Amino acid sequence: MEKSGKEIERKFLIEKYKGEIAGERVWDIVQTYLVRTDPDIQRRVRRIVSDGNVTCYYTEKRFIDHGIREENEREISAEEYEHLKKEADPSLTEIIKRRRIFVYDGKTLEMDEYPFSDRYASIEAELEGITEEVTLPDFIRVIKEVTSDVRYSNSAIAKNQGFPEDFE
Fold first, then answer.
1. Comparing C-alpha atoms, which of 83, 96, 78, 91 is closest to residue 36?
2. N or C: which end of the chain has fewer CB within 10 A?
3. Residues 17, 113: Cα–Cα separation, whole Å
4. What does the pLDDT read at residue 7?
5. With left for phi above 0 and alpha for psi between -120 and 50, is residue 37 left, alpha or beta?
């Protein structure tokens, strides 16, 4: 599978939701950031386990504006994944997260839960435009929108090993 094009997302810091969500799919993800060969392009590899199946991806992202990125992603073999992991950026720790994917109000939502935080998680909605309205389910308690706050990017989380609120 290859995916390329513009990715438009809004991201929110939320209280971790511990209940089940109807129709959710669950992915267990290990995400490793790689040393940048171009300062404008972020590189990473991911290993995703879903329903007992393992899939690996290589991704390059170029940031265009807050919430808007150009993304190129391709599926890779387990061997290529292990080979690319040797290029891991030593300044960033590996991210381990559980992603809960579900549809609400016609939008696919991705809720990421991290083992370092019992209180917080994040949720993202992929959109057609950055100003598009996002409706989240009533059971999600939003703390704040963090779309344009770089402290909540996955690379910042990898560097700091937590959300800013985890250190307050």
1. 91
2. C
3. 9
4. 77
5. alpha
